[in-house]
Write a structure and sequence with these properties.
alpha+beta, Arc Repressor Mutant, subunit A, five-stranded antiparallel β-sheet, 3 helices, 30% helix, globular
């Protein structure tokens, strides 16, 4: 399912891919359900293509989200996106102990927590590959 969930640079939240055209895609906001066009020149990334830097390479975002879901027992993240940098990194250390301290920034952790909360709120299945 994460291959159809998109992050659009410059736009908050996550979007579900509805249809694909020659020069644009139609997406639907997971937050408010509004549909909008996303043009070819806009940077769009499927969550299935995102990974987190670790000391041994990369860990797919899907695996990080699954670990968060296990830790939180399917609920919202126990730390909010407004938490301090040290709190965010402590949370990340619990979820993914070998994350790269040099390559993962506070903004990355905030984004992962925000995405996780949206996915859990909308009951998006992290296990489904398509």
């Amino acid at each position: 399912m994460l291959s159809k969930i998109l992050s659009v640079t410059g736009r908050p939240g996550l979007y579900k891919l509805i249809s694909t055209g020659k020069n644009l895609n139609i997406v639907e906001s997971l937050t408010d359900g509004k549909r909008l066009p996303v043009y070819v020149h806009e940077k769009v990334v499927a969550l299935s293509d995102v990974s987190v830097y670790t000391n041994d390479g990369d860990t797919p975002l899907r695996e990080v989200l699954k670990k968060m879901k296990e830790k939180e027992k399917g609920g919202k993240a126990s730390v909010g996106t407004k938490a301090s940098g040290s709190e965010l990194f402590a949370y990340m250390n619990e979820v993914l102990p070998d994350y790269s301290r040099e390559s993962v920034y506070v903004s990355d952790v905030k984004k992962i927590i925000s995405w996780y909360n949206i996915l859990m709120e909308k009951q998006i299945d992290l296990e489904v590959e398509s």
